[in-house]
Design a protein that fits this description.
This protein has a 7-stranded mixed beta sheet, sandwiched between helices. The chain is α/β, with parallel strands linked by helices. Helix 3 (53-66) runs antiparallel to helix 6, helix 12 crosses helix 17 (596-614) and helix 16 (573-588) packs antiparallel against helix 17 (596-614). The chain has 17 helices and 28 strands. The protein folds into 2 domains: 20-65 and 92-255, Phosphoenolpyruvate Carboxykinase, domain 1, CATH 3.40.449.10; 258-323 and 412-614, Phosphoenolpyruvate Carboxykinase, domain 3. The structure holds guanosine-5'-triphosphate (GTP), sulfopyruvate and manganese (II) ion.
Length: 615
């Protein structure tokens, strides 16, 4: 814990545990920025966070005292806590997320936009006095390794101890970060308040302000202003706000990619090592693929990252990826010893659970952990569970350090990518796997991605929507220009780029069940992909790319039958024709920002569909 050279004083309980050598911000850029916000938000006190164990202890005891988190049974779940949010603050709020670029056109048709000056003026009135009676936590953080030229530094100021504690897990927060920021004065300013000042009222366990929630991004000045929500990507500003929305703008300007992707290290039975990324929309299987436990003999999988990848061309021309995060903020429901034993082990200790159910013996539970809910459950809202509705919120999550993962890959400073997967939830049409014919075709497949919506964001669940590259809620600029940026990666040495694959674990049969077993069996698809990369197998052309030849996909031991297999790859002619029209509508939104190459790709797709319909 550090003293801050500002008029606001000290946090009493912090002084006890602070280290002897106090580190302070001295850079006038930082100090002036902090002073301005302290003057506006008027916190009672402010503290700078560091990596000392006392810092974490202080945050935990503050949160326990307030009732935001409660300790779980240390015998069952050591070092772990359960948080219950306000039921109105449970997911990312896409309708309240804004890209405030100077020109509306630069935000594009897929983002909410407000003029930056207007937005700031409006939000300043919200921020005025917003931290009255509260502590301001000042969190110097880095996304990426400290000292790397590719790292982005930020300072988040927040009045939520829950957010502060979570940031310490999700990002790198320590004295080296503070020194690096102080030396250069270069950081992304990230302002956060739950919007619940304590003027004349007591605090509540989960303060928030749903009526006035805004998550605003200023891409030109690279600033983030968030107000009103304390949940996930709305509030942990290093993640979606910085590492995707702001970073995507930096990536466009500097020629790299900031993507909503897992990174997996895969070792084949022949001891060949491959690194694979996968872009799937929120709650569509990134964490699960990143923690894959292969069901086929000889395969090994290790996790590099589960949500965000930053990719750059290396000197060898290949795309190299890093995971800028230090923690997992993963979906709890659906996670079980059967589906994801690695995740279960990862969260067996030192984990903060949010909006899970609590068992009678002081552990957590969620739908899918076991077949039947245990007796005596308390639901995510703190009420005895009656069996009606879910006991855990569908977007209940765990927050845990990546170092808790038993299969964490040691590579932190970049891995060369061989293949990229694009996937989503599609009950029909999109096959289990297809290979893009070229980079341009791969960009086309990424640009037309669609997925059934999930509980990760507000709104209806299960509605098919276009989610290009799984970046719909996370691209900080015009999506049409983003497609162009992806295409531009192939301007030099296209051969060295990874191959692109479309995957879909979520096809349903007539009874509504999943046709493909998924999870650990997804290694079967990866094995085919590796065979393709090594030129060991041919494929069959289809309108959506190359699919496996009969017999090349290992389905041994699965209870699929010939009918099930066909269901994984069938492309209904009528549905394909409809898809062409839907893609036309989707593309029309981008106007003259749509790269010509993609219009050509769409015509080729249309022709392939027509040819199949006739044939
Ligand atoms: P975000 O953290 O929101 O970005 O989500 P994510 O993409 O990491 O998704 P995650 O791996 O957490 O999975 C979300 C849900 O999909 C969970 O309920 C999983 O159990 C389920 N799921 C993941 N992989 C598979 C799969 O291969 N098959 C099926 N049927 N379900 C899966
Ligand atoms: C997602 O929604 O893609 C997440 C969760 O990873 S959040 O951090 O809340 O955005
Ligand atoms: Mn995500």
């Amino acid at each position: 814990m550090h003293r801050l050279p500002c008029p606001c004083g000290w946090l009493g309980q912090v002084q006890r545990g602070r280290s002897e050598e106090l580190m302070e911000f001295t850079n006038p850029k930082v100090v002036n920025w902090l002073d301005d916000w302290i003057a506006l938000m008027q916190p009672e006190r402010s503290v700078v966070l560091n990596a000392d164990p006392e810092t974490k202890e202080m945050l935990v005891s503050t949160l326990v005292e307030l009732g935001t988190i409660e300790p779980l049974n240390p015998q069952l779940r050591p070092g772990s806590y359960l948080a219950r949010s306000d039921p109105r603050d449970v997911a990312r709020l896409e309708s309240r997320t804004l890209i405030c670029s100077e020109r509306e056109e630069d935000a594009g048709p897929t983002n909410n936009w407000r003029e930056p000056g207007e937005m700031k003026e409006m939000m300043r009135t919200l921020y005025a006095g917003a931290m009255r009676g509260r502590t301001m936590y000042i969190i110097p953080f880095s996304m990426g390794e400290v000292g790397s030229p590719f790292t982005l530094y930020g300072i988040e100021i927040t009045d939520s101890a829950y957010v502060a504690l979570s940031m310490m897990t999700m990002a790198t927060v320590d004295d080296r970060v503070l020194s690096a920021i102080d030396a250069a004065g270069a950081f992304v300013p990230a302002v956060h308040s739950v919007g619940y000042p304590l003027a004349g009222r007591d605090d509540v366990a989960w303060p928030c302000n749903p009526e006035d929630t805004y998550i605003a991004h200023f891409p030109e000045t690279r600033e983030i202003w968030s107000y009103g929500s304390g949940y996930g990507g709305n509030a942990l500003l290093g993640k979606k706000c910085l590492a995707l929305r702001i970073a995507s703008v930096a990536a466009r300007d500097e020629g790299w990619l900031a993507e909503h992707m897992l990174i997996l290290k895969l070792t084949s039975p022949r001891d060949e090592v491959y690194y694979v990324t996968g872009a799937f929309p929120s709650a569509c299987g990134k964490t699960n693929l990143a923690m894959l436990v292969p069901t086929r003999p000889g395969w090994r999988a290790e996790t590099v990252g589960d949500d965000i990848a930053w990719l750059r061309r290396g000197e060898d021309g290949r795309l190299w990826a890093i995971n800028p995060e230090m923690g997992f903020f993963g979906v709890a429901p659906g996670t079980s010893v059967k589906t994801n034993p690695v995740a279960m082990e990862t969260v067996s200790k030192n984990t903060i659970f949010t909006n899970c159910a609590r068992t009678a013996d002081g552990d957590v539970w969620w739908e899918g952990m076991t077949k039947e809910p245990p007796e005596g459950l308390i639901d995510w809202q703190g009420k005895p569970y009656t069996g009606e509705g879910p006991a855990a919120h569908p977007n209940a999550r765990f927050t845990v350090s990546i170092h808790e993962a038993p299969n964490l890959a040691s590579e932190r400073d970049g891995v060369p990518i061989s293949a990229m997967l694009f996937g989503g939830r599609r009950s029909s049409l999109v096959p289990l796997v297809t290979e893009a014919r070229t980079w341009e075709h791969g960009v086309f497949l990424g640009s037309i991605m669609a997925s059934e919506t999930t509980a990760a964001a507000e709104g209806a669940v299960g509605r098919v929507r276009r989610d290009p590259f799984a970046m719909l809620p996370f691209c900080g600029y015009h999506m049409g220009d983003y497609f162009g940026h992806w295409l531009s990666m192939a301007e030099t040495d296209a051969q060295a780029l990874p191959k692109i694959y479309l995957v879909n674990w979520f096809r349903r049969d007539a009874d509504g069940g999943f046709v493909w077993p998924g999870y650990g069996d997804n290694v079967r698809v990866l094995a085919w992909i590796i065979d393709r990369l090594e030129g060991r197998v041919d494929g069959v052309d289809s309108p959506l790319g190359t699919i496996p030849s009969e017999g090349d996909l290992d389905v041994e031991g699965l209870e699929l039958g010939p009918e099930g297999y066909d269901q994984l790859f069938a492309m209904n002619a009528e549905e394909l024709e409809m898809e062409v029209e839907l893609i036309r509508e989707h593309y029309a939104r981008f106007g003259d920002h749509l790269p010509k190459e993609l219009a050509i790709q769409l015509e080729e797709f249309d022709q392939a569909v027509q040819a199949q319909s006739k044939g």
